[in-house]
Amino acid sequence: MTTSTEPKTNENKGIEPIFEGREISEGDKGVAKGGGKSGKGMAKGNTLSHFSKTSAKYWESRIFKPTYTENGEKRESRHFAARIGVNKRRHTFPLGTGNKETASKEAAKVYAFLMANDWDATLAKFAPTYAPRDEKPVTVGDYIREAESAADVSKKTLRGYTRSFRRLVSDIAGIDHMIKVERKRRLRDEKTGKMRFVTVTEEKDARHDYAAEGRENGGARDAWLAKVDAVKLSTITPAKIQKWKQSFVTDRGAGGALDEKTARGTANSILRKAKGLFSKTVLLVTSELNLPSPLPFDGVALFKKKQLKKMRYESKIDAPALFRAAMDELPKIDEEAFKIFLLGILAGLRKGEIDSLLWENVDFEAGKISVEVTNYGGTKSDDSENWVSADKELIEILRGYRAKAGGQFVIESTEAPRPGVDGFYRAEKSFQRLYAWLKGKGVTDSKPLHTLRKEAGTLVYERFGILAASRHLRHSDI
After folding, report:
1. Contact at 8 Å (CB) between 76 and 65?
2. Are 61 and 47 in contact (CB under 8 A)?
3. How would you list the strands of the sheet with 73-76, edge to edge?
4. What is the pTM (predicted TM-score) of this model?
5. Distant-in-sequence, close-in-space partners of 326: CB < 8 Å, separation ≥ 6
């Protein structure tokens, strides 16, 4: 009787690289489709049993296509595998082909090599991604660090994945993220009526202090991260995530139908990003870890979208009137806020794109703005990196500001750029002044700058159609 070299928790760890980390069903752990008999039992009723194990004919009835579970559905691998046992050790070798004849020859080749060498050499040659799993349970931090070290995903995308997953883990594990901090606030003295600085105690959400992460004053967030990263990955089960999903909507959607719809959308956003941390691309580079089975999001589905048509943007702004007011008022309040307004409503640029836009990316002669990745910032996706046609009036206004510019950035600020720091914007003060002004003009959306971007798309759509609007906003598709 042979014994497995793989951990008892999952006999098929050795073949996971073929299936990119997906779960192998219990019924297929080293068993050919012939019915689950041992090698000797199968040989008794097999007319090919007289063939040597170094013969491809011997393996024709013994190779099999393992099955795996993906999104709750049982599927069959495209390629064959062979379970080979020698000297009380056994391993499932991927054969890399869906052709039975070729796979049989490959299995015989593996066996012959094993007979002439040893297990270590055979595993290194025919299963190079295999390595004995560490029996120590994997923590959330272990998994994230492994993913960050080698996953073929952009750093910005991966940060979004890890941020959402840590938030979800924090909620499930009951890790408190609210802290009390002392701040100096300028308040009016009730007795004297004069303004003075007073030390007050306020609550702060440590989770969202991204700019302080890793810095001396980022102790609260670092402490929260340490607690989350120490949670065992095996404790974040699909059942717990499903329970979190329902509780999230119940708690946030108690105010009515609109609140419930908003809560579902937020829950879907968190789940979609967190689930991305366990995509095929990421699982490939974490295959050497002792991953739990099932994985956290196995079988967890997003909420279905309802009333999709009503999710389309409907303009509630008198754009021409808002534009005239901005021309008259904003330059007197904050010239940088005025430039931000123009780039939002006329060019449809996003906040990060505006904050990191360089003068060299503005082509005054061609009337275009190049939105591209620089050392100071990136774009939302590859499709976002493109040219944007700029209105003649916008170009002329920018030309005037270019003549007196004091630096390389279109939006000037006393703050230096901090590449790679999430949530930090050089011109945040100017953004906030613009938001306050927009709120006074009736733009009450939670993301007022994004509302300007939507207005930019609406203006192009009304004049040139949906395709032109999609291209103007640099969407991946209509």
Report:
1. yes
2. no
3. 23-24, 67-70, 73-76
4. 0.55
5. 338, 341, 342, 437
